[in-house]
Design goal:
By secondary structure, the chain is mainly α. The protein has helices at residues 2-33, 41-59, 62-86, 91-114, 146-154, 159-177, 179-189, 191-196, 201-227, 239-249, 254-273, 287-304, and strands spanning 278-279, 283-284. The chain has a two-stranded antiparallel ribbon.
């Protein structure tokens, strides 16, 4: 029981930390499967977090905050699509530009609007997504092992957590069991063949980046309105880049992407819990090293254990319609 009592809180923290990674990873999955590489996941999450927290603070409604976060991220996704699809610009440069714009504008606007050093006012009550207690969770709390798992690990999360994990089977079904998913995968592999079949490559790719915007907006809203009680400077803390690493690690497949995000989330949660804890034979480890540990292990996993990851063949390549 002692081991379970210690493990369940760590796994619970893993789930909470993994949610923005999972949403951003699935967002990148849609985009990159359509042939549009998106380095700007970080920026869209950050902008969504700021817009969502600002709207929730002003309106007092978490749902309005979520809607504004989605609209903001979709707008940035369309900017990326306009640059890389319509004007055939460099997709990496466009994504990096969105990251810079989001990082700078959120601080400037936050200071101008709220005068709190780039932060938004603290959110409480209906301005936040509160935890949901599943039916019977309190009744089975004292049941050994299973009761603890149900009441602590499965119950007690906000609605966005359940939405994030529900999106995994939804994404699998969309990509591999629908006509849209077939066309989306085809346009990332051979857009000329899709164009020959009379299907608009441009419209397909725009739909993919719109879905990317929706999911990154939800990820940003989760960070600011559910996991935390407001926006703080650079609160995404590289999660968009870790999501990209998880996407490559999962080889652009939704279910492996979920497990990859849970793995990186576990490393992050463990690093938080082990801060200040003496290690055997080493002693107390500097906090900076503990904070860097998830990124170090991410690089090690990608470099040594991923094998050969083959991206969509048309990824990153602007499509020029043949005359």
């Amino acid at each position: 029981m002692g081991f379970v009592d210690a493990l369940v809180p760590l796994l619970d923290a893993t789930i909470r930390v993994s949610v923005p990674l999972l949403l951003a990873c699935l967002a990148g999955l849609y985009s990159e499967r359509a042939g549009i590489f998106d380095i700007g996941l970080e920026g869209k999450m950050l902008a969504g977090a700021f817009a969502g927290a600002s709207a929730a603070a002003v309106s007092g409604s978490a749902w309005i905050g979520l809607l504004v976060a989605i609209l903001t991220a979709v707008f940035l996704a369309l900017v990326h699509g306009f640059a890389s699809i319509t004007h055939r610009g460099n997709q990496i440069v466009s994504g990096v530009a969105i990251n810079f714009i989001a990082a700078g504008s959120t601080i400037i606007l936050g200071q101008a609007w709220f005068q709190q050093g780039g932060r938004t006012p603290s959110l409480a009550g209906p301005a936040r997504f509160e935890a949901i207690t599943l039916p019977g969770a309190d009744a089975v709390r004292d049941v050994p092992v299973l009761g603890l798992i149900y009441s602590e690990l499965l119950s007690g999360h906000s609605i966005l957590v359940y939405v994030a994990f529900l999106m995994v089977p939804v994404t699998w079904w969309v990509l591999f069991r629908t006509r849209f998913g077939l066309r989306l995968r085809a346009v990332g592999e051979n857009p000329a063949a899709v164009d020959t079949a009379g299907i608009s490559v441009t419209w397909l790719r725009y739909r993919a980046v719109i879905v990317t915007g929706v999911l990154t907006g939800v990820a940003g809203a989760y960070l600011a309105i559910a996991q935390n009680a407001g926006f703080v400077k650079d609160m995404t803390a590289g999660k968009g880049f870790i999501a990209l690493a998880a996407l490559i690690f999962a080889k652009w497949k939704p279910v492996p992407a979920m497990f990859a995000c849970l793995l990186f989330g576990f490393l992050d949660a463990a690093s938080i819990r082990f801060q200040g804890t003496p290690w055997p034979l080493i002693g107390k480890v500097p906090v900076q090293f503990i904070n860097a540990l998830p990124f170090i292990l991410t690089v090690i996993l990608l470099a040594g254990f991923i094998g050969k990851a083959i991206p969509p063949r048309a990824g990153g390549v602007p499509y020029v319609k043949e005359r």
